[in-house]
Amino acid sequence: MVGTMTTSAVRVIHNYVNGEYTETHGGRSFAKMNPATGEVLADVDEADQQLVDHAVMSARRALDNGWANTPVRERAALLRRAADRIEERFEEFVAAEIADTGKPITQARELDVARALINFRTFADVAAAAGQESFLTDLAGGRQALNYAIRKPLGVVAVIVPWNLPLLLLTWKVAPALACGNAVVVKPSEETPSTAALLAEVLEEVGLPAGVYNVVHGFGADSAGEFLTTHPGIDGVTFTGSSATGSHVMKSVAQRVRPVSFELGGKNAAIVFDDVDIDEALNGLTKSVFANTGQVCLCTERVYVQRNVFDEIAAGLVERAETLRLGNPTDESTTTGPLISQAHRAKVVGYFALAEQSGARTLTGGGIPDLGPDLAGGSWVEPTLWTGLSNADRVVREEIFGPVAALIPFDTEEEAIGLANDTQYGLAAAVWTNDLRRGHRVAQRMRVGISWVNTWFTRELRSPFGGVGLSGIGREGGDSSLHFYTQPTNVCVQL
Ligand code: TXE
């Protein structure tokens, strides 16, 4: 049986447990809408407690049946075959991601699916090349002890991912987890079930043993998400999503003292100094504010601009925002898709109203665009820029997760650093300047997990990635991923 089937125009998406696509027997299912049009796209089986139990037990059995002890070179080879197979089925993944999210085809190709390949290949390399710590310890009487650490898989890992970059974030976690010899139970967002289901097909095709990769579909509270994160059989949770949900999951996992790795929200700042190359900064800001319709945890929602270039930057950014092309996601000239859902649009539009009430001047956008009858049912909003707000306003403090930014002037470097760091979040920052010393100086003082100078979203997957404050706990990427997805045992041998 296949994971996704077509019945008329609506696909049926099943859970995938122990190498089988399980149909719900009289169970619940939910409709997945196309965010660009509002049409029903798929009917998704919702996993109940029993099925989540089955998934966790199957994962455990797969570990015990030998997956946990597979030589790392075999696991790395399997990851590379998975990357090759995704490459062969590239356009299927692109189509599935577009249908679920409404994101433009160019982005699905160049970012989402491209990064899935890179995630598998990078973590195959990182795991295969990893060494172990060892120390020669001096003891009394001239004797010595050899200490070394062996790293064992963490075990059954719960992987909970959001809807904004579904395949990218899923593979960012699944690739290192499998490379380290874990078994995973994945709960994709209820908004984006398709690529996790397709990945099951690929992993089966390249010979991953049954039970190592399981997918359970559903929601959070009183559904698959909660059944999974509260399950006594899981050994750790890796989660990307909102800070509120992260905090909730952490509380339930804390009862059984399991490790967590959380990448949560952001309210990221960009600082633009007056010595900057204006065009370069505007190109960078256009990406960092509007990429993926502002639905990236790393997107900029606060832009601090040195006063004497403020008007020029504001006018330039408005001009670029107004040339973005909203439209059919499969059209190659489309730059900007819809928001993920009507519910999310209601939240973003609520902030449009709040901005006005707070005295903002809306430079562009602030409404719902008319894109014609075909797209009238989609969750579209206009790219939006405000001035006249300050760090005291909720619009500048809370994560909106839409194609929006507040532009705020500053006079001195110290003031800009203070404004940028004045947030409970701490995921990313971008500094735009032609003064290299200033770039390093300011970037280092950002209270964030990643601080860019004259770029945005440039990623080195071997670097540690994560956030401070409300933006998360722990780091993934390179060795940080190997550390999270393994448990070390220190062996001490007296020589
Ligand atoms: O996220 P949730 P939502 C932010 C963004 C957005 C807001 C809400 O501001 O507007 O969060 O989005 C699962 N136990 N980000 O509601 O709820 C859920 O099913 C276990 C930032 O979609 O955090 C989904 O798979 N799991 C962000 C995942 O958690 C639970 C990306 C994320 O959903 C659960 C997405 C529970 N009790 C939203 N409740 C980023 N940092 O990139 C929910 N889930």
Offer a quick outline of the entry.
With 495 residues, this protein is of the alpha/beta class.
Descriptive notes:
- The chain is of the alpha/beta class.
- The protein has helices spanning 49-64, 72-88, 90-101, 105-129, 166-179, 194-205, 224-229, 243-254, 278-290, 307-323, 342-357, 394-397, 413-421, 436-445, 478-484, and strands at 4-7, 10-13, 15-17, 20-22, 29-33, 40-45, 134-138, 144-153, 156-160, 183-187, 213-215, 236-240, 260-263, 268-272, 300-306, 361-364, 384-387, 404-410, 428-432, 450-453, 472-473, 486-494.
- The strands form 5 sheets. It has a 7-stranded mixed sheet, sandwiched between helices. The chain has a 6-stranded mixed sheet with strand order 11-10-9-12-13-21, with helices on both faces.
- The chain is globular and about 70 Å long.
- Bound molecules: ligand TXE.
- Ligand TXE binds next to α7, α8 and α11.
Tags for this entry?
binds ligand TXE, six-stranded mixed β-sheet, seven-stranded mixed β-sheet, 38% helix, 15 helices, alpha/beta, 495 residues, oxidoreductase, globular, 22% strand, disordered N terminus
